[in-house]
Amino acid sequence: xxxxxxxxxxxxxxxxxxxxxxxxxxxxxxxxxxxxxxxxxxxxxxxxxxxxxxxxxxxxxxxxxxxxxxxxxxxxxxxxxxxxxxxxxxxxxxxxxxxxxxxxxxxxxxxxxxxxxxxxxxxxxxxxxxxxxxxxxxxxxxxxxxxxxxxxxxxxx
Length: 157
Known about the structure:
Layout: E1 8-15, E2 21-28, H1 36-53, E3 57-63, E4 65-68, E5 85-93, E6 96-103, E7 110-111, E8 114-118, H2 125-136, E9 146-154
Antiparallel strand pairs: 1-2, 1-3, 3-4, 5-6, 5-9, 7-8
Helix pairs in contact: 1-2
């Protein structure tokens, strides 16, 4: 489903081991003077939570403005940081089900009882990601979202 244009957005760029770029785009509430501090704090919490479940190197992010964190051609240090694999995050609001992809997943967070999925309920980085995601990301009409699952997938890029 398409989002209205009057929404806030955070764009985060990651490089993999070969310095190939992947982008995560997540929509939230429109930034205003009244909510600026809270939204920036929520955006930071989400970036930190993503960093805990990915092996990719964050090279920049946009939230209102663009911020470069390292040089654009910098490679991730972990050989397993490959943009061809992703965490596929499925989430819903009252209007439907949506998807987001997080590149270079850290597969150590796979659920040993459901191997294709991240272990939601781990009381660790995956749960922190779910909480940060649900606090920042909004559905259509600025509705709250609920993460359904986080699946490990491969992509031909």
